[in-house]
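Re: weekly structure request thread

Next one in the queue (224 aa):
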Amino acid sequence: MHTIHSNILDIQKTGYGAQYTVGRLMSPDEVDEASEGYDHQTRQRVRGHWFLCGDCSQEMFDGIARHGEAALRYSLGVSQRGDDIKFLVVNHQLGNAQHRFLVPMWDPRVPNLVEALSQGQTSISLARKGDTQAVVLSLTADAPYALELRKHLDMFMPDPQRLQALLRAMPEWMETAAEPEQFPNLIEGLAITDVSVSIVFDAMLPNLSQLLAKKLGANGATLH
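Done, posted below.
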């Protein structure tokens, strides 16, 4: 699979590097349409899948290409802001590098995404920053854990005023989300020095997504 990238924002912090982009959540129909030009084997592999698309660092992408998907560790969880807004968090780690997807739990597509997780019908597309090439990874959650995730789905879409407040706070919150210690280190004994964050605000709130992308200096990633 391939991705489109533009103006990815990189920040070098003390002791670690952070990258911020706007990601995308794609439905099975969107995936089917986007993969029309691919070979039969690839299309069969992703048929019926939901896709989370984002950008990881050069270091992480090269590591996945070199060592394969088996070298990755990943985790799923829910993070809650002080104002009760919850995000589904999907972490992938390879060595010192970690990529984090943030998906608002009030996105109306998230229940379908959680259901697909329990059925093994979710995939991840991670692209190398500034390039069009991406790796496709599988993502699953067993039934009991998927049930735990469903307990966080009783959320309503914030009203316009709260959305604007969220937008104003989002760059700062994303910086916090990129701090190495903000989410668990999945490999004991290795310090996280490379963090990339992809936040999904695409199909449901295109206007907000564009404003957020402008603030972050990133237009995001998508299958193409």
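DSSP finds seven helices and nine strands in the chain. The first strand starts at residue 9 and ends at 13.
Next request, please.
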